[in-house]
């Protein structure tokens, strides 16, 4: 059996894919920058291979002999000290992986895109039918648009690509990385002084992984949105409160105050070179009221979403903040990622 290559296997999306494939007995390679560190994070049987998506040579070596590639690596956050990192990793890195997979003549390529590449109107449900050809508002979104385009070009050249478009991913993962898990951890440990307005659509990490595996069997060129439901930060905090006693409900920031805070904190970050309290890109997403429609993946692949409270309970348990025995929302034994 030929191995499957996963990029981003130590992250929240790739980690779930690696766990499910390893559980099935599929030989898995993981492209990682630090094999020694990765061995402690990856499931048993997953082979760490030294490389980086920004290094075309290392990607070609890792892809050689593989039957499939799941490209889940990328920068998910909305702020970097150098905004060019988004293009270098998300866009050029995707180009490198797609071209290596094309040269290796893999049977399957699954690209982790984002809901941000679709045309949408705040507060109005949207599906996979229309890609937005206008540059989006943030460097992250624009880099993911460029990444999607790179895969489409490779698809035109014969790459058997499928596209998966997750909402904000949370849930059990090998480590806490920038994104929703970091937000959940900060809320649960009372490190959020105030809640910005708005919210965002979420998807549980293991549901996201299952969606990727299902998409790998779909027709070439297929696109699937993976999203459970939209939740405000206040609603999310109240769920965390119900599971983690001692969690406080921070005061809600008015929209104008949140905008002022985002602007000032990013300005101050240029001096301190530390991450802003509230990146303007993050506030933009929260205020956009995105309502992705996942009916296609539910109908075509039989995909289903984990209950949000159960998913948050499994997340808190995975990172050691609360035992699921302490909550009424016990998760399935398969909900958590295998631990070394």
Annotate the secondary structure layout.
Layout: E1 4-7, H1 12-24, E2 28-32, H2 35-39, E3 46-50, H3 56-63, E4 68-71, H4 84-103, E5 108-112, E6 125-126, H5 139-156, E7 161-166, E8 168-170, H6 180-188, E9 199-204, H7 205-215, E10 223-226, E11 229-232, H8 233-243, H9 255-272, H10 280-287, E12 291-292, H11 295-301, H12 308-318
Parallel strand pairs: 1-2, 1-4, 2-3, 4-5, 5-7, 6-12, 7-10, 8-9
Antiparallel strand pairs: 9-11
Helix pairs in contact: 1-7, 3-4, 4-5
Q: Can you describe what's shown?
A:
By secondary structure, the chain is an alpha/beta fold. It has one domain: NAD(P)-binding Rossmann-like Domain (Rossmann fold), CATH 3.40.50. 41% of the residues lie in helices and 15% in strands. The protein has 12 helices and 12 strands. It has helices spanning 12-24, 35-39, 56-63, 84-103, 139-156, 180-188, 205-215, 233-243, 255-272, 280-287, 295-301, 308-318; strands spanning 4-7, 28-32, 46-50, 68-71, 108-112, 125-126, 161-166, 168-170, 199-204, 223-226, 229-232, 291-292. The strands form 3 sheets. It has a 7-stranded parallel β-sheet with strand order 3-2-1-4-5-7-10, sandwiched between helices. It has a 3-stranded mixed β-sheet with strand order 8-9-11. A two-stranded parallel sheet has the order 6-12. Helix 2 (35-39) links the parallel strand 2 (28-32) and strand 3. Helix 3 (56-63) runs parallel beside helix 4 (84-103). It is globular. The two termini are 24 Å apart.
